[in-house]
Amino acid sequence: MPIPATAPPSRRQLVHSLLALGAGLTLPQSSFAAPDSADTVWPRDSRVPGGVARLSLGPAPQRPQVSADGIPSLVLGDMIEWTALIGIPLSATVGQHEALIHTESGRKTLAYQVIDKKYTEQRLKVSPKTVDLSAEDQARYERERAHQQSIIELFTQPLPKASNLPMQAPVNGRRSSSFGLRRVFNGQPRNPHSGMDIAAPTGTAVKAPLPGKVVDVGDYFFNGGTVWLDHGGGLLSMYCHLSSMQCKVGDVLGTGDAFCKVGATGRVTGPHLHWGVMLNRSMVDPALFLVR
Asked: What residue spans define the domains of the chain?
C-alpha cells in the first residue's frame, strides 16, 4: 500500500524541532504535520479594498514595528516568524502600497499589491429624517463622529496572544447584508457598508468573538445602541443597533461571553446586528476572520 505524501514541514516547525532536539526532547509525530493552509489561517489574506494583507516579516529577535500610511499595524508571531496584519481601507486605490518596517537593524519598506474588487449595490428605504438630517441631528452626528474617532485610534497593549485570530460569529442568523455593499438610501448614494449585518430577533444575545475590553457604550444617531470592544494592537470590533447593553466601559470579556442584545435602534429597516471589525483604523471584512 503506498504511503500518502505529506507536505514538508514549515520553517517554524523545523526550527522548533531543532530547538527541541538540542534540548534532548522527543517530539510527537504531530510536530511534523503539514503546515496550515491559507484556509485555516485567520484573518485570511485578501489584498483588496476592505481586506487584510498578511505580510511575512521573517525572523527577528524582537518584534518589528510596522506602519502603513503612518498608522501603526498589528504584528504577531515570535522570533522565528513575525507577521504584520495590514487592514486595507475600502477607499484604498488599486496598485502598489508599502508598509514601513522598523527593526533593530534599521528601516525598510515592504511592498504589496491591492487588487480591485467589485462590491454589489443595495437600495434601501428608510425614514427621510435619517437621510436628510436636520441642523440639530447633523450637529449630534458631528459630535458622535468626533468621539468615535478617539475610539478608532486606540492602539493598546497587551496584543492578541496568537498569530492566528479565528473569530466565532457573535450571533447566529442569516447574513442580511454583507461587507462592502454600495448603499443607496432613499435614492441617495452613501458610504459603502463597513460591516456585516446578521438578521436575528430583537433580544438575541450577542457574544464576544475574541477576548476584549469594552471601550465604548453609547446610543448613536445612525448606529443606535453601540458597543466597541478593544482586542489590542489596533484590532477592534463594534456592535450596533442594539436593544440593550449588559456591559460597561472597562469590562473585560472572554470569547463567548454575552454582553449585549440584538435590536433595531438607529437607522435600520428591521432587527439585526451590525458587526464591524477594525484593523489599524480601517474597517475590514469580518468574514475574513470567521471560522465558519
From this structure: 1-35, 39-114, 121-288
